[in-house]
Every structure is written in structure tokens, then in C-alpha cells.
Amino acid sequence: MRVLVTGASGAIGTEVSDRLLARGDEVVGLTRDPERASAGQPKVVWHAWDSTLERPPAAALDGVGGVINLVGEAINQRWSDDAKKRIMDSRVTSTRNLVDAIAASDPKPRVLVSQSAVGYYGDTGDAVVDESTPASDRFDSRVCVAWEAAAREVEGSGVRLAITRTGLVLDEDSGLLKELLVPFRLGVGGPLAGGGFYMPWITLDDEVGLLLWALDTDSAAGVYNASAPNPVTNREFSKALGRALGRPAIVPVPKLAVVARLGREMGDAATSGQRAVPRRAQDEGFEFRHPDVDSGLAAALA
User: Fold this and answer.
1) DSSP state for residue 231 in the 8-state scheme
2) Is residue 146 a contact partner of residue 116, using CB atoms and an 8 Å limit?
3) Buried b (16+ CB within 10 A) or exposed e, 8-31
């Protein structure tokens, strides 16, 4: 299959592209800087795209059978008014532009797999969260609602749509785990803000596996939580990371320190969580390679 991947030069997109290429698919990538992207992934066919200003070029969709949409600015930053606009536009406007290009293509791709996030649910405390749980009114939740609505417009073109609400992706070279490794390796890691909030984690391996499963499975449609079957509290995660590194994990990080770094609004979001479970994916036959946090961290740090 010829697959178009947005965000193909990011951590998840790079792994998606590598896995597609390894199994014999062709990969088309969209980026602002094709020359730079090509230097890192020369086997991907790159096209220039300024995602918030224009549709992808029509040539990028030639012969494409499926699309994986991973575009979006990092949300783990201070939520200033300018940052909020960039975060929203990078997901919602970009996805609308992508969907418009899909609608105009002939023939059309058979499927769009579009990213969302478990932030959709807001802070749900200890309650178990599946795909039927409603959205909250927090900023990141509103982003996810608008993001998913933009993707759903593709269904009017007869294209199958699967949406993945992704949790915290465990990858040694990016995201949360990368940030935690330095203090934990120095023996000064520990739980955040008391550690009682749940972390809906997933390994990069399983995240990519679920995206490709949604791409390949003709019956896969609607929303899927992309999080491991066994979410843990931040305190449990901290202990597991300490075990994986052979280091203590007893130095607590107060919430005030998180707020000082990320601001009040993002700091509150970063110290709350969702006990999200991948009910639909499991019910429909997807098998997680790393269902528990110890095996997940071992895989991420291998």
C-alpha cells in the first residue's frame, strides 16, 4: 500500500514510516522542509506542506490507499494565548486542510487514521475511562473535540475513519520518559504532586502497532483509546521506572515545581490524569505486546 503520513518526521511518525517501509509499503511524508526530512529518512517520498495555511499538494495523494494523520504541535508547554492558538491550529486547521485534500482526490484513500489524545477526558480521578466517557471542558479536551470533529468530516467522502486517543507514549528518545530519565538516573526521581493521579501510558511499539492495525483492519472505525490495558498511578510508575533503572525513586516533586515550570493551567493538567483503558481495541482483537508497566519500560529502555 502507498501510505501518506503527516507528522512523519516526529517520534511516532518516524517509527510508523520505518515499520511501513520494513513491511514493503511505500510512504509519502508531508513536511515544511523536505530536504531536511529526506536527509533523515531518504526512503520516504517527501512533499512540502505548510499545514495550517494550505491543503497538501494533490501529488502527495496520488495512488495513496491510506492516510495516518499525526500532525500537531507539542502540548507540553505553557498554555499562553499564543501557544493555545498554535496548538489548536496545528491540529484542527491542519486536519481540515488534509480532509479537504482527501475529498478532492480521485481515487480517494480508503482510510484515514487520525490522532487524538486521552486529554479528551480531562481529569477523571480513579474512575475507569473507556471510549464512551464524555469529554471535559479543559483546554486540551476542547482541542481534542475540535480535532476529532475536523477528522470526522472525511466520512462524508466515504472514507473509513479511525481515531486514536493516545496516552503517554513511552520512548527513551522523546516525550515524558526522556525528561524523566536524567533525574531518575541521578537517583533524584520520584512521584509528582503526591503521585496519586493515573497515567494512561503506552509503549511506542504498541502505539505504532495500533495505528497500523487501524490502517489495515477494514472493520476498525470510530474511536480507540491508544493506552495500555493496565494504567498505573504516577507513584506506581515512578517505582517501576526506578526498578528498571536500578535507582531509588523516593524524591517527591511538589506540584508547585511543576506549576512553576509549565504555568498553572498546564501544570494542573500535567498533575492530573485518566485511568483510561483500550476497551474497543481489545474487544476487536488488537493484542498489546506490552500490557504492564514493567514490560513496557523494559521495552522502551531496551
Assistant:
1) -
2) no
3) bbbbbbbbbbebbeeeebbbbbbb
**What three-state secondary structure class fits 121?**
helix
Which residue is it, cell 502507498?
Answer: 2
240-259 pLDDT, tens digit each: 999 999 999 999 999 999 99
Cell of 95: 486536519
- What is the residue type of 179? E
Give me the mean pLDDT over the 150-160 stretch: 98
Measured from the Cβ of residue 243, the count of other Cβ atoms closer than 10 Å reads 14
Q: Residue 119 is which amino acid?
A: G
E-assigned strands of the chain?
2-6, 26-31, 45-48, 66-69, 111-117, 128-129, 160-166, 168-170, 198-199, 201-203, 222-226, 232-233, 275-276
Q: pTM here?
A: 0.97
Q: Which residues contact 39 (CB under 8 A, 6 or more apart)?
A: none
